[in-house]
Structures are given as C-alpha cells and as structure tokens.
TrEMBL record:
NAD(+) binds at G7, A8, N9, G10, S11, I12, G13, N106, V130, T131, N132. The active site is at H185. This is Malate dehydrogenase. Catalyzes the reversible oxidation of malate to oxaloacetate. The keyword NAD applies. One of its GO terms (biological process) is lactate metabolic process. The keyword NAD applies. GO terms for molecular function: L-lactate dehydrogenase (NAD+) activity. Pfam families: Ldh_1_N.
Length: 356
C-alpha cells in the first residue's frame, strides 16, 4: 500500500507523516509520498523532512518520495491536508480567517488536485480529506471522482472529541465510550446523545449518567449553549486570562466543549495539528483494516441518510473500497431537527462557494 500526503510540509501533514511511520502502517517496500508545491517553501523543505524522517525512523521507514505537482501524486490512499488554515489574531483574538473564508482560498487548490486525480489516477484511490471547510472539499472531490471513495475526517474527529468529553464528565476512559457527532464540522455540529454507549453501564445507568452531565438541556438548546459559551470564553481570552478561559472550559457541558475546545486551543496560540493527525491516521487504519466498520465522517450524500443531498458528516460503513453506504442510525426528533437544519445551511454554503 502507498500513501500520499498533500500538504506534507504543513503542521498537520508533518504530524500525519510521523504518525504513519510510528504506527508502522507502511512496510519497508511501501511508499509514503510527500506532496508540496513547486512554488512554495515545501519545494525544498520536503527533501530535508525526508532526511529527518530517515534519521529518526531508519529501521521502520517506508520508501519516501517527494512530489511537487498534482499530476505526480500516486498512491492508494491520498490524504488531502494542504491549504490555508485558521489562526487566531493575537491582538483581536478573532479566528482569522473564518472556516467559511477558507473555502474561497482552498477551492482552486482542491480542484487542481481532484482534476489531476481523475486524469492520472488508477481509479481505486481513497481520498481522505482534512482541509477545511471539509464539507466543501469533499464535495469538490466527489463531483469529479468516485464519491464513494472520498471521505472527510471532520465528523470522525468530532466524534473522538465527543467521546473524550463524555468520558471525562462521567469518569471513565475514552475507550469505554461509544458515541457519534455528525453534521457540519463547525457550528452545525450535531452531538448524538442517543448514540452514547458506555461499556459496563446498563441502559438505565447510561441514561442516569447522561442526565447528570446534561441536566435538562435538549438537542435544540445546543446551538444557543455553544454561542453563549463561545462569547464568554472569547471575552475572557481578550482580557488575556487564558488560564481562566481553560478553567471555564472545564465547567462547560461535554458536547459544548467539543466545539469550544479547538477554538480555545487556537486562541492560546497553539494548533490542533496533533489531534487532527491522530484522527486522520486512526481513520486510515480503520479504512485499510479490511473489515466493515461504522464511523462518522463527511461524504457526499445523494439521499442515503435522512433524504439529504449534500456533503455533510453522517454515520457510514467504511472498508477498503471506501464508504459502502450510510448507516441507518436512529436519532431523537431533536437530533434530527438539528441535523436537517445543518444540512440545509451546508448545502446553501456549498452552492454559494461553487458559484464564486
Ligand atoms: N478537518 C479537521 O478536523 C481539521 C483540523 C485542523 C485543521 N484542518 C485543516 O487542515 C488544513 C491544513 O492545516 P495546517 O494547520 O497543516 O496548515 P499549514 O499552513 O501548517 O499547512 C498547509 C500546507 O499546505 C501547503 N500547500 C498550500 N498550497 C499547496 C498546494 N497547492 N500544493 C501542495 N501543498 C500546498 C502549504 O505549503 C503548507 O505546507 C487547513 O485547511 C486546516 O483548516 C482540518
């Protein structure tokens, strides 16, 4: 198996390369292709990165290769992690640019790689999309390539965060919690409390534990709770009190922390590259694992889940051929309402960005 990382010199691309090698996902005769751009800094730096990886992991290193044109990408798994990203403005403490603004910048780049993949690829590649806005990039690749082989990691990562935050609130390990977060990777996130299963807990114990951390809040309260928490956190960060902001963060409800956590990390001056790379490599391991697995991830739907026709995070069954079908997970009425509202908003955004 060969893997290509587009944007391999970026924060996330580098972390993904390191994790792939450390996980021994590739054998000595498999190839890890590091893809950069000829007119950028990566044109030179990727050769140095190869050398550094060989120095660090010589015994476990797959074959390393540098590609600087979209036409030269050759792999079984293509990880799209290139493009503009969000950072926090240290003066105004605003997220710059917004996830939505990224669409305009990252669109042209995604089209170039998607077109080259269609033209020069072998047709069996699986594309794992990391670049934001992940729904839009999934849509761009799916419009040009086999959509059943295009999977975005946003909902996968949100689900890992949701599991961790639920586990933290009820004092068990993340491995003991199964749960999904679907919808938009951003403000249209839909945490599926109805999907929470805690290993070793009976149904009634799980219900009691959820009630204890959720209080009387219902799904339709969720967007309001996130908005209020974000305003509070931003205010404290603007006053330069980052430690207090993290202390407040710890008191928020677990599902609210899923959305506020990455923003707070950015405001602190750090990035979310380690967790994102971890989620990406985890998803790749699941895809290549050879078994049908149910995960939450962004795909382009044509009515397969709740009759929705757009690219959005949903439960899907993945295997070595990509995503076979949507998984028919049952939701509460409130969760369904949130999901359908998010789908309408995402569809409108994608239509607008496509026309620009
Ligand atoms: N899906 C998620 O959960 C998630 C989480 C965090 C970040 N992201 C997204 O991942 C992307 C990368 O983030 P980052 O922090 O690594 O950014 P970064 O700025 O550190 O790296 C981006 C890389 O893309 C490269 N690049 C730009 N244009 C290119 C081209 N035409 N060909 C090849 N490479 C090119 C740049 O040279 C740079 O190395 C962003 O879009 C970001 O929003 C996604």
């Amino acid at each position: 198996m060969d893997i290509a990382i587009i944007g391999a010199n970026g924060s996330i691309g580098r972390q993904i390369a390191i994790r792939i090698i450390m996980e021994r996902l590739l054998g000595a005769t498999d190839r890890l292709q590091l893809v950069g751009r000829r007119d950028g800094r990566s044109a030179a730096a990727l050769y140095g990165f190869c050398q550094d990886l060989k120095d660090a992991f010589s015994e476990n290193c797959p074959l390393l290769d540098v590609a600087l044109e979209p036409e030269d990408v050759v792999a079984d798994i293509v990880i799209m992690a290139a493009g503009a990203t969000i950072h926090s403005d240290q003066d105004t403490k605003a997220a710059m640019p917004s996830r939505d603004d990224l669409a305009i910048v990252n669109r042209a780049l995604a089209i170039r790689y998607a077109d080259a993949l269609c033209r020069y690829g072998h047709g069996h590649e699986i594309v794992v999309v990391v670049t934001n806005p992940v729904e839009f990039l999934v849509d761009i690749f799916s419009a040009r390539y086999d959509r059943k082989r295009v999977i975005g990691i946003g909902a996968y990562q949100d689900s890992l965060r949701f599991r961790r935050e639920v586990a933290r609130s009820i004092n068990v390990s993340r491995q003991a919690v199964r749960a999904m977060a679907i919808g938009e990777h951003g403000d249209g996130l839909v945490p599926l409390w109805s999907s929470v299963i805690v290993q070793g807990f009976s149904d009634s114990e799980t219900r009691r534990a959820i009630h204890a951390v959720r209080g009387g809040r219902v799904s339709t309260d969720y967007p309001g709770s996130v908005g209020a928490a974000r305003a509070q956190v931003i205010q404290i960060v603007r006053e330069g009190r980052i430690r207090e902001a993290f202390a407040l963060f710890d008191t928020l409800a677990p599902d609210v922390r899923v959305v506020i956590g990455p923003f707070l990390t950015l405001f602190s001056g750090a990035k979310t590259d380690v967790a994102t790379a971890n989620a990406t490599v985890d998803l790749v391991c699941t895809i290549v694992g050879g078994r049908d697995s149910v995960v939450a991830a962004q795909v382009q739907l044509r009515g397969e889940f709740e009759g929705v026709h757009t690219s959005i995070g949903v439960p899907i069954i993945v295997n070595t051929k990509g995503w076979e079908s949507a998984y028919p997970l049952s939701m509460t009425d409130g969760e369904r309402q949130l999901f359908l509202a998010a789908a309408v908003r995402v569809q409108e955004k994608i239509q607008t960005w496509t026309r620009i």
